[in-house]
Specification:
By secondary structure, the protein is of the alpha+beta class. It is built from five helices and ten strands.
Length: 211
């Protein structure tokens, strides 16, 4: 089920402190309306009752899709997030449910959460996506040394056009690479079930270990 929680938050615009409702978790199978709010960011936006300004709050969050058997934990504490995942799997066993065939991921922020949702929605493999991102980012760093830290983001346009969008450190798009689903849906053999963090650091370590 989806779990709300009340916290106190200071408006970044006027400094007013007020109570807001955040969500510790959202089950998009039981509450489908949550998914669109997550994808468009509305679940993390709040309007200050004093000055009327809208601001975004980044907070720890669990995304649960029972239909896709997908759970994504938004947190910068990998150890704690891993404990939450293990607790979920153990709780399932106590009720006679097998949660070992779920896909579990840990991400740092809402943008990474949205990206993972889109990747799994189209049936892609996020490991392959991270490989593509890493390799093209290496190419961009060589071609554009003036860009301190280029960024890459998986995107879906018009429901079925897939691409990797690349941005400079001012969030200006500098490149776009079209993708075909068959290119990024390759399955991995001997996938580690406890490998929950699949990102650029993972891609770099994984590729270097193959050399």
């Amino acid at each position: 089920m989806s779990r709300p929680r009340i916290i106190e938050m200071e408006c970044p615009h006027c400094g007013s402190v007020e109570k807001i409702q955040i969500w510790e978790s959202a089950n998009v199978s039981l509450d489908p309306s949550f998914k669109e709010k997550i994808l468009n960011g509305d679940l993390f936006k709040f309007r200050c009752s004093k000055c009327g300004q809208i601001y975004t709050v980044n907070y720890g969050f669990i995304y649960h899709d029972m239909d896709k058997k997908l759970m994504i934990v938004v947190s910068d504490n990998i150890e704690h997030s891993t404990d939450l995942i293990n607790e979920f799997m153990n709780a399932g066993k106590s009720f006679g449910a097998d949660a070992s065939d779920y896909t579990y991921r840990i991400v740092n922020n809402r943008n990474e959460l949205v990206e993972k949702i889109m990747i799994f929605d189209v049936g892609a493999n996020d490991r392959v996506v991270e490989y593509f991102k890493y390799l093209h980012l290496q190419k961009l760093r060589q071609e554009h040394p003036e860009i301190n830290d280029p960024l890459a983001f998986f995107n879906v346009y018009d429901g079925n056009d897939l691409s990797l969008d690349f941005y400079d450190d001012h969030f200006k798009m500098i490149d776009q690479v079209p993708l075909k689903l068959q290119m990024i849906s390759k399955q991995f053999e001997n996938v580690k079930k406890d490998e929950f963090v699949i990102n650029q650091e993972w891609a770099a370590k994984s590729l270097l270990s193959k050399e």
